[in-house]
Amino acid sequence: MAFGKTSVSKKLSFSLLIILWSTTIFWVGWQSPSIIGGPFVTQDEEANKAKFYPLDRFVISVPGDNLPHYLLLEMALKSRSTNVSRILKEADPLVRNSLMKMFSRKHFNQLNDSKQLENLQREALVLLSNVLTENKYEIEIDEVLFTRMVIQ
User: Fold this and answer.
1) Domain residues for 131?
2) Can you say how many angstroms the Cα of residue 112 is from the centroid of all Cα atoms in its chain?
3) Which of 3, 14, 27, 64 is deepest in the core (most CB within 10 A)?
């Protein structure tokens, strides 16, 4: 009988060991992303992900050789900063005024040349960055994108 009790206690000990081992393996597997780190840990990509903020369309009078022309411009700003929507809503009059001044100084031929598009985007980026900084708006604009540009 002593052999039977030892056998039962060995079986019980072995069963407990298997249960403990399985529980430990399950826990380590469940916690491995936080324990190991690296590619298993999800990064906060939203903080670094650029977002696009469309502005209301502009209709601007542009001087031409004989007649005035009109420019319909739709654009968006690309930024990784936080609170961009709120800041753009507050600074909307500054942004619109600055862009209207910039484009109204351009000649029709200058705006009608597709090779000038990138230069205009860079000029608008520098202009908006400066205007917002001068007026104490903490926003960093990565890029200015013209999403639609019609000149008549």
Assistant:
1) 46-151
2) 30
3) 64
CA separation (Å) from 26 to 12, 18, 20, 21, 61? Answer: 21, 12, 10, 9, 69
* Range list of H helices, the chain: 2-36, 45-48, 84-90, 92-104, 108-112, 117-134
Which amino acid, one-letter code, is at 1? M
pLDDT 10s digits, 90-114: 999 999 999 999 988 888 888 888 8
* C-alpha–C-alpha distance, residues 69 and 125, integer Å: 24
What is the rounded distance in angstroms from the CA atom of residue 95 to the CA atom of residue 89? 10
Is it the case that residue 45 has pLDDT exceeding 70?
A: no
| Section 54-61 average pLDDT | 90
Q: Give the relative orientation of helices 117-134 and 92-104 as an angle to the nearest 10 degrees.
A: 140
Task: Measure the CA dihedral 56/104/129/89, to 10°.
Answer: -30
pLDDT at 92: 92
**Domain match, 24 and 71 both:** no
pTM of the model: 0.66
